[in-house]
């Protein structure tokens, strides 16, 4: 209820600002960050997907937020819903992205209690529709719609210039994908001027391999009219409803082809691969470019400590981490402790994880504030299909949820999932076989 009242008060404040002074923004951004990210399994059981750690230092949402400020967009509404606490804490008032502003800046927009009823966001377009007042208060010419769960760098100003040059009503960022993957995306068919002639939402037999990236620029009047007209549509969505509506209404819709790095980290495999690409000798996605920095909330932490007996090979190591063991081809977050004689290989270890002495961790993703006991062996044996959810868990990875505790000396197979405070009795004969899982309530406080 407190969050509801704060959100409503925030909207009233913004509206009152609009009454007291003329606020005019050429383009504002609406960042959809309320998704559960269910394909990430136990990693998103207690946290929204955009708040999941990435690259040892960042959160996934840092990338679209950084793109906004690097593109000169200083007004961003962040729409949250599922498990928003960590995301809200991370964003704060937007200081790391220079979005702490009196007019504009970043505003967190959760669902809130209206005068007549209280509604959850039921679809991507429905979420935007419920915040018409927020957008109207800035009287924008254009509205940029973004997703909060992709890894990429894009200059939205260049996309806006393209939108203007084509006198477009709607512009959709798109990129070629392998034809065998095209059925997973909204597919665009264009003419020789890149004007969209057909739009297919996740078709069984795609007509092209040009896929929508879920990044849209709308003329504000066009978006507003479409949202109001479709407001009663159940689960109103951009790909399924708004874009087809605009296309059928004869609006000028263009594809803006993007050829840079873009990664949907919506599965455990793609999330692991995207992190591992950061430690390549010549990374495909470069976090260290001076001209296009990725900003994030940074805690004040002590420097790393690397003991004399430890070894580190081709890895990213976060601030405040203490290493007494060995790390190979891994991404290690901040505040991690790796005990004496422990070996971590081909893994992602998020913030404030403790790995006990003598443990061997192979190809695992271990979420924030987990504690792995001494002498644990993780990633052992042969692959086996998951008994929890074969669609989510379908690789060699061991996936450990936030605040999980694993006791000393247990052996854990491949394609396993573990979450909560587990004990010796949860591991028959001291082992968790490949494909098995342990999901328990609670977590380390």
Overall description:
This protein is of the alpha/beta class and 445 residues long. It is 20% helix and 26% strand. The strands form six sheets. Strands 1, 4, 5, 6, 8, 9, 10, 11 and 12 form a nine-stranded mixed β-sheet that branches. Strands 15-18-21-24-27-30-32 form a seven-stranded parallel β-sheet, with no helix packed on it. A seven-stranded parallel β-sheet has the order 16-19-22-25-28-31-33. Strand 9 (186-190) and strand 10 form a beta hairpin. The radius of gyration is 23 Å and the shape is globular. The two termini are 24 Å apart. Mean pLDDT is 89; it is low at 1-6 and 12-21.
Defining key terms:
445 residues, nine-stranded mixed β-sheet, seven-stranded parallel β-sheet, disordered N terminus
Please describe the topology of this protein.
Layout (H helix, E strand, L loop, with lengths): L1 H19 L6 E6 L20 E2 L3 E2 L2 H9 L4 E5 L5 H7 L13 E5 L14 H6 L2 H5 L5 E6 L2 E3 L3 H10 L4 E7 L9 E5 L5 E6 L8 E10 H10 L8 H11 L4 E5 L4 E3 L3 H10 L27 E2 L4 E3 L2 E2 L4 E2 L2 E3 L2 E2 L4 E2 L4 E3 L2 E2 L4 E2 L4 E3 L1 E3 L4 E2 L4 E4 L17 E3 L4 E2 L4 E3 L2 E4 L11 E2 L4 E3 L6
Parallel strand pairs: 1-4, 1-6, 4-5, 8-12, 14-17, 15-18, 16-19, 17-20, 18-21, 19-22, 20-23, 21-24, 22-25, 23-26, 24-27, 25-28, 26-29, 27-30, 28-31, 30-32, 31-33
Antiparallel strand pairs: 2-3, 6-11, 7-13, 8-11, 9-10, 9-11
């Amino acid at each position: 209820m407190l969050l509801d009242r704060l959100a409503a008060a925030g909207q009233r404040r913004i509206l009152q600002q609009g009454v007291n002074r003329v606020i005019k923004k050429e383009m504002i951004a609406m960042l959809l960050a309320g998704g559960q990210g269910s394909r990430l399994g136990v990693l998103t059981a207690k946290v929204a997907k955009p708040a999941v750690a990435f690259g040892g230092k960042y959160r996934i949402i840092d990338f679209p937020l950084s793109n906004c400020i690097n593109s000169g967009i200083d007004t961003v509404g962040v729409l949250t819903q599922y498990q928003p606490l960590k995301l809200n804490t991370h964003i704060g008032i937007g200081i790391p992205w220079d979005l702490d502003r009196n007019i504009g800046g970043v505003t967190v927009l959760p669902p809130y209690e209206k005068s007549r009823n209280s509604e959850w966001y039921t679809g991507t377009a429905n979420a935007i529709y419920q915040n018409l007042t927020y957008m109207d208060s800035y009287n924008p010419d254009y509205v940029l719609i973004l997703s909060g769960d992709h890894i990429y760098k894009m200059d939205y100003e260049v996309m806006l210039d393209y939108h203007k040059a084509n006198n477009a009503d709607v512009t959709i960022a798109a990129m070629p994908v392998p034809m065998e993957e095209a059925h997973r995306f909204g597919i665009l068919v264009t003419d020789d001027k890149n004007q969209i002639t057909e739009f297919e939402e996740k078709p069984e037999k795609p007509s092209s391999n040009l896929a929508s990236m879920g990044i849209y620029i709308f003329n504000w009047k066009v978006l507003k009219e479409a949202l109001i007209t479709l407001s009663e549509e159940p689960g109103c969505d951009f790909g399924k409803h708004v874009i087809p509506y605009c296309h059928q209404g004869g609006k000028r819709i263009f594809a803006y082809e993007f050829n840079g790095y873009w990664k949907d980290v919506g599965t455990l495999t793609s999330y692991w691969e995207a992190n591992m690409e950061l430690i390549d000798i010549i990374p495909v996605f470069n976090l260290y470019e001076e001209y296009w920095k990725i900003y994030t909330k940074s805690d004040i932490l002590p420097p790393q400590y690397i003991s004399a007996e430890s070894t580190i090979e081709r890895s990213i190591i976060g601030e405040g981490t203490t290493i007494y063991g060995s790390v190979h081809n891994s991404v290690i977050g901040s505040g991690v402790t790796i005990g004496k004689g422990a070996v971590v290989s081909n893994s992602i270890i998020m913030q404030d994880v403790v790995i006990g002495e003598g443990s061997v961790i192979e190809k695992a993703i271990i979420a924030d504030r987990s504690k792995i006991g001494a002498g644990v062996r993780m990633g052992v044996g042969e692959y086996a299909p998951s008994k929890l959810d074969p669609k989510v868990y379908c690789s060699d990875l061991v996936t450990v949820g936030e605040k999980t505790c694993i006791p000393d000396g247990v052996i854990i197979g491949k394609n396993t999932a573990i979450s909560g405070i587990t004990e010796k009795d949860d591991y028959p004969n001291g082992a968790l076989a490949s494909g098995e899982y342990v999901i328990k309530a609670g977590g380390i406080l």
